[in-house]
Amino acid sequence: MTDIDVVPTPAPPGAAGTSGRRKRRRWVADLARPSAAGAFAVALGLVFANDGFWLTVITSSAILYVLVAAYNVIFGYAGLFNLAHVAIYGVGGYASVVIETELGVSFWVSVPMAMGVALVASLVVALPTSRLGGAFFALGTLAFAIAATEVTTGWDEVTGGANGYLGIAPPIIGDTVLFAGELSFYWLVAAVAVVCFEIFYRFGESRVARELVAVRESVVAAQTVGIDPWRRRMLAFTISGTFAGLAGALVAHQMLFISPESFSLHIMINVLIVVLIGGGGTRLGPVIGVVALVAIQEAGEQLGDMSNLIFGAAIILIFAFAPRGLVGVGRSIAQRLPSDSWPRRIGARPVPFEVAALPESEVGAASRRLEVAGVDLSFAGVTALQGVGLAVESGEVLGLIGPNGAGKTSMVNVVSGMVRPQAGSVRLDGDELVGLAPHAVARRGVVRTFQSARMIPEFDLITNVVLGRGQAARSTLVEQMLDLPRSRRDEEEAYYHGLGLLELVGVREHAHQTAGDLPYGVVRRAEIARALAGDPAFLLLDEPGAGLSNYEREEIAEAIRAAVSRGVGCLLIDHNVEFVSALCARLVVFAQGRVIAEGASAEVLAQSSVIEAYLGGASR
Amino acid sequence: MNDWLVLLVGASTNAAIYALIAFSLVLVYRGSRVVNFGVGYLAVFGGIFFANTAGSGWLALLLALGVTAALGLAMYVLAVRLAERAGSTHAALAIGTLGFGLILDFLGGEFWAKQGFSSAPLVSGGHEVGGVMISNQRILTVVLAVVVFVLLRVLIDRTMPGWAMEAVAFRPSTAAIYGINPVVVLAGVWLLAGAIAGLAGVLRTPTSAVSLGLALPLAIQGFAAAVLGGLGSIQGAAIGAVVVAFADALFVRYVSSEFASLFAFLLLFVVIAVRPQGIMGAGREVVRT
């Protein structure tokens, strides 16, 4: 854990020099990694230069790495059990050779085109299936894969059918023909694999990968901070499809003959096994998995066709004892410590930084208004809300109280877009929010928290908070995926901003600990920090004090005051009347889905109808 | 007319086999929320065992069912239970069942050759209807599938073990509060599912050869049937199996034999995309956002 003094002043001039040195170190690391990967590939090539068998093995392994790394994006990071991946690989393979033949273009032109075709095919799979749950998604993509195989087999005028596609021309550079089995083709494939390794390595640390994991782990948590799960899944399909197409085009020009068998379900099973053995959702998993696969296959050959036994046993043992793959095993041994990835990426800043978590510029900005009117909500005949309305202004805390079952959480669900009311409106500065998806509501600046915190348990606190800072990023998607300078500046900004927010809610000492390992009170407070990370206009806090100690509740009250003093408006639900009345000048009281009282706190709490609603009596 | 009858007979036999596989899948999915990718291996293992044991008679049938039931249980313990305890996701569990299937594939190849096996029919002879000979074996296949269907309905709707299965399917932790041991119930479910998958393989052996290579195609037809039926109900799976078998037969007969099973999977893809809860109505946990 980094120990940083928080001083509410801007960084002194010395910061620039330190940051310059840090950037230089980072730059060296960025060059060292691909150089090492390249050196490894060259060494392999030189060692096996005269050994035809092993040259073929390493060439195939390099292509397999590209295919597997692409699958790692969709299955590992995004958690989508996509069984059409190898079908897309096949689309890339067939597209490259058919384009070459039909259009008379060279390998170098046909490969990018084949990647484009594979991308489109991948989106064809994605569009109807990406909203489906696990088993249905798997079977839907499986159906696509089988239909694709059938089409390839049956459409023999173009694909050659079951007999396969013959007469594929090897790639040519200048006068050199790159034949598979010769070193020249290996150099081509190795270069592609090294570039892909660097791309996927950068991707693995990127904001995009983090958001994919967030969607995988908790759709609700992701939506709450403004991440659109559907678009993220489409992106995963785009990336994995494009690179699967690249791998397919390469394998077609390695084999110089392809048939539906080259892209069968058995290959899909191999790819799955490789990702699982190596460890899904990690950067080194695909590399380790490919090496393990080669080892298993060779061992299986030596022992006489036992690869299925070894595969099957490996799958079962891995799930039983190492569900995160070999990388996970290594990591759990090496990393019993708090995660260190942020200080390593950003560099521990040894100078004070500004607490500036909340934007001062918002202060005095035009006052904003969140207004709910005439909302009716019922679930299968059970009425939750009946014609309720309320309004919150920037810079105020409106308390919402009421007995259990009064409809308080339903109100938050309606405002945040998680349920759609049968009637009524929710307007932010006059703009209708009803009908928007939860992530869209969050992006407009209305962010909620939950009665029981919804954090991504496998992320540390700071990463959870950074997740909420997506809207502030100025880098483009490609910059983010490749971790280019502008994206790094965004990440650095989000990181320090997040630390400031964790300080604000009093849990900064836990910033680098995994959310799943921390006590409830700490996580609850970090959730408020995450909600604030996107500079929201309005916060909806659903019982933020529930289950906390008096001390922790006071920290939360302080955080709410600090946010409100900077112009955030807040709707606060809580049962603790003392807590609510200390924070809120105004209160709204719900009972049985209706507003029964509204006004200044002291007056509302004195009303007999409110007392009855809480203690039972007339309103029953 | 004869053509139609031949098509009807062939499709009905296929429907019976697909339905049995789909029943096995549905039982397991309801109980463990796992799609059993190893179901095809259970079926072909049963079929190959049957073809090579005790003269392929009724005794061999019972032995084969016993073996596949035991394999189903082993699959639950090794591929599902252990992985669940380690915190694997349902997708991972599905791959675990595939891993178990690969081991069966290896064992099948070790015990017997990697080739197609067929056997003499369990019941010989046949009936002539409208100039078409319908073998008694085919009739037996359809009858047994119907019997299994009825027995499963009775089990689920009318008996204590069936209600325990329902309770565990709803939520294992809740079932446990009522004194049901979910692990015991699920072990029973997997035993039963193994035997039913094995029956599908056994019944297929006399009408067409069964080989290890048939495992995945057979499983996939079963998936298609089960998903068309919503992956949650026995009736749905039965109807799904009939739809898949007849769609296949009609497509091959009237459109194209080149794209043999394309139609069933296009249908499956479309159904999943348009109506993921299946043709049978309300499904659970289908859509995630």
Automatic annotation (TrEMBL), chain A:
SUPFAM superfamilies with a match to the protein in the record: P-loop containing nucleoside triphosphate hydrolases
Region Disordered, residue ranges: 1-22
Entry keyword set: ATP-binding, Cell membrane, Membrane, Nucleotide-binding, Transmembrane, Transmembrane helix, Transport
Domain of life: Bacteria
Membrane-spanning parts: 31-48, 54-73, 80-99, 105-127, 134-155, 184-201, 235-257, 263-296, 308-327
GO cellular component, as recorded: plasma membrane
Membrane topology: Multi-pass membrane protein
Signal peptide: none
GO terms of molecular function: ATP binding; ATP hydrolysis activity; branched-chain amino acid transmembrane transporter activity
Primary location class: membrane
Protein name: ATP-binding cassette domain-containing protein
InterPro entries: AAA+_ATPase (IPR003593), ABC_AA/LPS_Transport (IPR051120), ABC_transp_permease (IPR001851), ABC_transporter-like_ATP-bd (IPR003439), BCA_ABC_TP_C (IPR032823), LivM-like (IPR043428), P-loop_NTPase (IPR027417)
Keyword Cell membrane part of the UniProt annotation: yes
Automatic annotation (TrEMBL), chain B:
GO molecular function per UniProt: transmembrane transporter activity
Keyword Membrane among UniProt keywords: yes
Membrane topology, from the record: Multi-pass membrane protein
Protein keywords: Amino-acid transport, Cell membrane, Membrane, Transmembrane, Transmembrane helix, Transport
Gene Ontology cellular component list: plasma membrane
Pfam families on file: BPD_transp_2 (PF02653)
Single GO biological process annotation from the record: amino acid transport
Xref: InterPro entries: ABC_transp_permease, BCAA_transport_permease
Location in or out of the cell: Cell membrane
Membrane-spanning parts: 6-27, 34-51, 57-79, 91-113, 139-156, 177-203, 262-283
Family in the record: Belongs to the binding-protein-dependent transport system permease family. LivHM subfamily.
Name by which UniProt lists this protein: Branched-chain amino acid ABC transporter permease
UniProt organism field: Nocardioides zeae
Taxonomic path: Bacteria, Bacillati, Actinomycetota, Actinomycetes, Propionibacteriales
